[in-house]
């Protein structure tokens, strides 16, 4: 075989090897959702690729047969084509045996380099970048190869299937898409600039509804504006003017004995039409939805949908009221800072290394603000105040502090055993090496 014929044969083998490399990577990297979309748009090749993904055994067997056979042929042809020429060149300076060895090694290096670059790296990078497009183009030729080499493919596939069965290894990939997969895609989209950061955060907040308890979004007990059943009309009017809300619990004696709730719209309607306002009127007071404080926000939304309500009373295991939650509270958790909140922000950044945080701020919001992955014993509390109580093992007092994760959490204000404000400061590298609570 002449040098020109050898070069042509090597080029053809490299092209065939590149084809099999592209076929291998494109099928593995093709996204099922994208292929389904192409199939729905009428592309029959997409259906063919998805069938190959469902049963990839024969497909990859053909790929491996082709790649290994071509690699062996490439070595044989390349050694015969280049070694004699390089040997004659090296014989000008070295002995015959040494020149033959150097000629073989040089030929081997050149052939290997050509295959690595043109039959492996370039095709595989292209297939990774345009996996679906490449998979659609190589599907028909690969199906033809599978038919052509069917007997030998059957032998190798059955042997491989037997080994997989003996070793209890999976033979099909899991196509289920989890919430982690979706979040990873949205984060990648945000980093690439295809998705706004706020939109990505809102999507993340939606998936957090199933892990955040209702207490992370509720209005705390001591901040709930409520009426007593015996309150006079004058008291009701003054309370509405002083604390305007859309819904007010109605209690019998104290907040732990809630008998229902009254809608501010009903009160306003009666006030505008000069009708008497009496909280003993059963047509004015509605039955309240009562939920336990360990429910997740997703479960609360389900409860709202079932009873067609948007307001709920939250109680603990001792049947004491711990707060109230509305549909707007849950939606505000999803929207985050995309909505203009009328109440004071729970997390205020003072400067580049310090934050002023309300003690009732949900732990998830604190982690995001501080760029932390987690806090210790995070299954024992839902708020920043709970974190400090768990770390200190007692009710915190002013100036108590906890060092954790490179931050100092210092209690600034305590109101009736409730932590009002916490100063969070970033510690220096030396101070951040110890994570300990401290007290005056």
Describe the structure using short key phrases.
single chain; 440 residues; alpha+beta; CBS-domain; 4 domains; six-stranded antiparallel β-sheet; 15 helices; 14 strands
Q: Can you tell me about this structure?
A:
The chain is an alpha+beta fold. It has four domains: 3-167, no CATH class; 179-208; 214-334, CBS-domain; 344-438, Uridine Diphospho-n-acetylenolpyruvylglucosamine Reductase, domain 3. The chain contains 15 helices and 14 strands. The protein has a six-stranded antiparallel beta sheet, with helices on one face. Strands 1-8-7-6 form a four-stranded mixed beta sheet. A hairpin with a 2-residue loop joins strand 11 (401-404) and strand 12. Helix 1 runs antiparallel to helix 4. The model is unreliable at 339-344 (pLDDT under 50). The chain crosses the membrane at residues 6-29, 58-78, 98-122, 134-156. Keywords: CBS domain, Cell inner membrane, Cell membrane, Membrane, Repeat, Transmembrane, Transmembrane helix, Transport. Residues 1-199 form the CNNM transmembrane domain. InterPro entries: CBS_dom (IPR000644), CBS_dom_sf (IPR046342), CNNM (IPR002550), FAD-bd_PCMH-like_sf (IPR036318), FAD-bd_PCMH_sub2 (IPR016169), Ion_transp-like_CBS (IPR044751), Transptr-assoc_dom (IPR005170). Involved in cadaverine and putrescine tolerance in stationary phase. May facilitate the efflux of both cadaverine and putrescine from the cytoplasm, reducing potentially toxic levels under certain stress conditions.
